[in-house]
Design a protein that fits this description.
Blueprint: H1 16-33, E1 39-49, E2 54-59, E3 64-68, E4 84-92, E5 97-106
Parallel strand pairs: 3-5
Antiparallel strand pairs: 1-2, 1-4, 2-3, 4-5
């Protein structure tokens, strides 16, 4: 598993804005380097429903990724634009990239 830091020690990391910027750059980095079936953790929100189980997830930097919410779980607690921390599996094909939601929690 790969994780994004959840708490920041301001004695060690005094420049919080730089940390937030780095976290948001992760989304773009994932699109370029993530391997199929890799597990990732991101922060952001669902901003648009694309199909029945497909949504557009926007990270804290404004970058977007298609996110699939399988029908086998109850995701009804998630609302549009709700700040979330998600754990998802990368689904990378030759011409497409999306995430399959494993877990989500409100921020």
């Amino acid at each position: 598993y790969r994780y994004i830091m959840q708490r920041v020690n301001t004695d060690v990391f005094p420049d919080i804005d730089a940390i937030v910027s780095n976290v948001s750059q992760v989304t773009e980095h994932l699109k370029k380097t993530a391997k199929d079936d890799e597990i990732v953790r991101l922060e952001g929100s669902l901003v648009e429903q694309l199909k029945h189980d497909k949504y557009l997830f926007k990270d804290t930097n404004g970058d977007t990724i298609k996110l699939e919410l399988d029908d086998d779980r109850d995701w009804s607690f998630i609302e549009k634009d709700m700040p979330l921390e998600i754990v998802a599996k990368v689904d990378k094909e030759l011409m497409s990239f999306e995430l399959e939601l494993i877990n989500a929690r409100p921020k």
